[in-house]
Specification:
Residues 147-174 form a coiled coil. Keywords: Coiled coil, Heme, Iron, Metal-binding, Monooxygenase, Oxidoreductase. This protein has helices spanning 11-20, 22-29, 52-61, 70-79, 88-98, 104-124, 133-150, 158-176, 189-214, 223-229, 240-253, 256-271, 273-290, 296-300, 304-316, 348-351, 355-358, 394-409, and strands spanning 4-6, 35-37, 46-49, 66-67, 130-132, 323-327, 331-333, 336-338, 343-346, 412-416, 425-427, 431-433, 438-443. β11 (425-427) and β12 form a beta hairpin. It has one domain: Cytochrome P450 (Cytochrome p450, Orthogonal Bundle). A six-stranded mixed β-sheet has the order 1-2-3-9-6-4, with helices on one face. α7 runs antiparallel to α12 (256-271) and α12 crosses α15 (304-316). 40% of the residues are buried. The mean pLDDT is 90. The chain has 444 residues and is of the alpha+beta class.
Length: 444
């Protein structure tokens, strides 16, 4: 008996529904079956995958049979051949030389920077003021990634760079899900704006590369220093273009996702006073007993409830809301055969809302994670993807989000500003709150 079911609606109806509301469309298919055929062309059939077992086959067991496909082609326009877009042997080579960036001893150093930058933000926040939380978190995480990865103080350029990142992500998302990809060389208003944003980011990137070459010892313990010391398989230094691609990847994938998750966390806590109160109690207890004696990573280990809040936020609002794969060859998955060029849509956002797995899945309940990860199927909960292409910086992202959340919660409450309406998810390259979220600052 086949485990593949056909979607009952027409191909045309599916296309327009996905364009209008991709998240709603994916959640609605969750109940149809493990693998849902969208009844597209026989040359390039498309499926939505709702089964953890099938996800594990695609991302782990038989990942060599798949490529990222269209999503990679679109992202390359911005970040080139970085870790997020490279395929095959190049991706394996890049992952090997980037792994030391995220070794535990480095993350321990990064954690101190996270706390320093967050405390600097806390000094700027004023009791009673209203802040655009998305912009605030974006600039905070951008400053953190610049210091941890490139040992660079952005200072006054932080807002300009954050805006450039925002433009780049919005325009990339529009292209990613558009039926027609207009070549980058065509001077449309969107392409012109996109290129301007890329130039803004590149100016900073190439400036940092030049400074590193002039004083390599000062950058020895950074990602950039590591890249400068890396050699190709031919024994040559990495070309500036490849270093640029990895830096652009970190700028776009390494901070915007964390910022979005934090905005969702603050919003969710404002809706759940009990969870918010418990977070404040933990922050007060840890800060009261340790003072400034704990380094950032040791502090992180003392914050189990803050970690649960982040984990639950990532369940409901995973930044990587969709994962796309294409079969590079005919492949068998769980006894089902799929032809070459088959496309697969895997949505952590939808799968994390499976009531059969999570129970009351729509509710924000951090205590789900009180005992670590419960006995769910391996790929029932996967906010960082998985397999060879899983997020290389997942541990750093978790440490960063937990420390920011707890550090600010120890000093402030953030409440929703009236008149904004319901928080609506906006599925761009990562998942954010549509139109951002204004929140009022209350010093505790």
């Amino acid at each position: 008996m086949t485990r593949i079911v056909d979607i009952p609606s027409s191909r045309t109806a599916n296309f327009f529904r996905f364009q209008r509301d991709p998240l709603g469309f994916l959640v609605d298919t969750l109940q149809l079956g493990e693998v849902v055929s969208l009844r597209t062309s026989s040359f390039r059939p498309t499926y939505i995958v709702n089964s953890p077992e099938f996800v594990q086959e695609i991302l782990v067991n038989k990942d060599e049979a798949f490529r990222k496909g269209r999503s990679t082609a679109v992202l390359r326009r911005t970040i080139g051949e970085g870790l997020l877009t490279s395929e095959g042997s190049l991706h394996q080579h890049q992952k090997r030389y980037l792994m030391p960036v995220f070794y535990k001893e480095r993350i321990q150093t990064y954690a101190d920077i996270v706390v320093e930058e967050t405390l600097a933000l806390a000094e700027q926040l004023q009791d009673g003021e209203t802040v655009p939380m998305h912009e605030t978190m974006m600039q905070l995480t951008l400053g953190i990634i610049a210091r941890t990865m490139f040992q660079t103080e952005l200072e006054e350029a932080k807002a300009e760079l954050a805006n450039a990142v925002d433009d780049t992500i919005r325009l990339t998302a529009k292209t990613l899900f558009s039926p027609l990809i207009i070549p980058f060389a065509v001077p449309t208003p969107k392409n012109t704006r996109h290129k301007r944003a890329i130039r803004t980011l590149e100016t900073m990137v190439y400036d940092v590369i030049a400074r590193t070459k002039r004083d390599s010892e000062a950058y020895a313990d950074t990602m950039l220093g590591l890249l400068m010391d890396t050699r190709t398989e031919a024994g040559e230094p990495l070309p500036d273009e490849e270093i640029r691609d990895q830096m652009m990847t970190m700028l776009l994938a390494g901070h915007e996702t964390t910022a979005n998750a934090l905005v969702w966390a603050w919003h969710s806590l404002a809706q759940q006073p009990q969870a918010e109160s418990r977070l404040h109690m933990e922050a007060d207890e840890v800060q009261g007993t340790s003072g400034d004696s704990l380094r950032g990573f040791d502090l992180y280990r003392q914050l189990p409830y803050a970690k649960q809040v982040v984990q639950e936020t990532l369940r409901l609002y995973p930044p990587a809301w969709i994962i796309l794969r294409e079969a590079g060859q005919q492949v068998e998955l769980q006894g089902e055969t799929f032809p070459e060029n088959s496309s697969f849509l895997i949505s952590p956002y939808a799968m994390h809302r499976n009531n059969k797995v999570f129970g009351d899945a729509a509710a924000f309940r951090p205590e789900r994670f009180e005992e670590g990860l419960p006995a769910w199927p391996r790929f029932a909960y996967f906010p960082f993807g998985g397999g060879a292409r899983g997020c290389i910086g997942s541990q750093f992202a978790m440490v960063e989000a937990v420390l920011i959340l707890s550090t600010l919660a120890g000093k402030f409450r953030f409440t929703e500003v009236e008149g904004q309406g319901e928080a609506e998810p906006e599925p761009l390259v990562s998942l954010r709150i549509k139109n951002g979220r204004s929140m009022k600052v209350h010093r505790r």
